[in-house]
């Protein structure tokens, strides 16, 4: 039952994140951070034991997040699914990373942001504006690190 409660709580968190993402409140100069990626990686790496899900529940969560994406931003369904699959692959590979949670979190942002655009851009047959991707990558790193530090300061982790 505890896993089910965690699962539902994470769905609510992602619903709030989708509301923020679709409202575009964090857009700066036409660049918007990928709040869904930052949230997924925070859940994956931030040391909040009460929110950790076993691997067998990550994939249903990824599918549920993609379906939430369909409800909030249906034109981004494929991209959200790709994003969650990439985070899931990182989850599988996490035991091969450094072991430092913040560093692994930042490496996840550095790896997934360009991969996400390469895969979704290729699937859609569009060219990628790498300058904007780099700006979003830097914004994701900045905002993700700020959130990490705020959560650490609030002692939300263990």
Written overview of the protein:
The chain has one domain. Helices cover 73% and strands 0% of the residues. It contains 6 helices and no strands. Helix 2 crosses helix 6.
Anisotropy-based shape: globular
Helical coverage, percent range: over 70%
Cα end-to-end separation: 22 Å
Average residue pLDDT: 86
Q: What class would the helix/strand composition place it in?
A: mainly alpha
Order of helices and strands: HHHHHH
- Nearest-angstrom radius of gyration? 15 Å
Tell me what portion of residues adopts beta-strand conformation: under 5%
Task: Provide keyphrases for this structure.
single chain; 0% strand; 6 helices; 158 residues; mainly alpha; globular
Outline the secondary-structure elements.
Blueprint: H1 2-23, H2 35-45, H3 55-72, H4 77-93, H5 101-124, H6 130-153
Short description:
The chain is an all-alpha fold and 158 residues long. It has six helices and no strands.
